[in-house]
Amino acid sequence: MKKWFLVFVFFYAINNLKSQDLNQSDLVSSCQNFNELNNNILLGSINKNSATMMVKFQLQLINQIYFQIQKFDSNFNKFYFPIQGYNAKAIGGKSGNGYVPAGFDYFDGDKHTGHAAHDIFINDKNQDALDDKTKKPANILAFTGGVVIAMSPNWDSTSTLRGGKYIYVYNPILNIICYYAHCKDIYVKIGDIVKPKQVIATVGRTGLNAFKKRSPTHLHFMILKLDANLYPNPINSYNLLLKSKF
Ligand SMILES: [Zn+2]
């Protein structure tokens, strides 16, 4: 697609939005568009320049709709540890050294390198994706509030994609996107507004490497911070995880 065409579509969409009442279904359809874009980025089927521009446009749209349909809620920005019943001791590595951002770029999709995230492990010796103590799946809680802008509720073991079943939640107030990967079951839909601490999924073993025997059962948790151009750069969430509520 030509750049000028994208710019035209964007400004047309923005102007159109201003002249009508927005509701949840507008949020859902804009998030569905983002999800499709995210799929193309993941599969490497869109070039990086177009993808960068389109991510910016789509997030601006979602942001605008969000602020028109949602009242401000100060609780929306609280931080909760993303696995119920666990705490910072479950974070892999030593003192947060599991976070290796070098080589990571969101726009490299599934081909990214580095590990711009923290792996948070559950007790699951027999690798059945059930917590050894409770014999139940471990709940993934929304680290903070946000809009579900992309997700993959399906995965099968022949897939070569690494994230497995995953969720991206965009917090338009903090300008961050939280990414939860290797889930077992997912309880949210595209366009849902989730509250902090809401159960959004369960910890699983989905994804090319997470499925393998050598991988202990864990949640891959990443935070992307949007810069002034809405470019998603990873940040080290370790201190935020330490400070989060349990
Ligand atoms: Zn990981």
Describe this structure in words.
With 246 residues, the protein is an alpha+beta fold. It has two domains: 3-73; 75-243, Glucose Permease (Domain IIA), CATH 2.70.70.10. It has four helices and nine strands. The chain has helices at 3-18, 24-43, 48-69, 238-243; strands at 118-121, 139-141, 146-152, 165-171, 176-186, 193-194, 199-203, 218-226, 232-235. Strands 1, 2, 3, 4, 5, 6, 7, 8 and 9 form a nine-stranded antiparallel β-sheet that branches. A hairpin with a 4-residue loop joins strand 4 and strand 5 (176-186). Helix 1 runs parallel beside helix 3 (48-69) and helix 2 (24-43) runs antiparallel to helix 3. Zinc ion is lined by residues 115, 117, 119, 220.
Topology of helices and strands:
Blueprint: H1 3-18, H2 24-43, H3 48-69, E1 118-121, E2 139-141, E3 146-152, E4 165-171, E5 176-186, E6 193-194, E7 199-203, E8 218-226, E9 232-235, H4 238-243
Antiparallel strand pairs: 1-8, 2-7, 3-4, 3-6, 4-5, 5-7, 5-8, 8-9
Helix pairs in contact: 1-3, 2-3
The structure holds zinc ion (ZN).
Calculate the terminal CA-CA distance, rounded to whole Å.
Answer: 46 Å
If you consult CATH, what is the topology of the largest domain? Glucose Permease (Domain IIA)
For the record, the CATH class of the largest domain is Mainly Beta
What percentage of the residues does DSSP assign to strands (E)?
15-25%
Keywords:
alpha+beta; Glucose Permease (Domain IIA); 9 strands; 21% strand; binds zinc ion
How do you describe this structure in short?
The protein has 246 residues and is an alpha+beta fold.
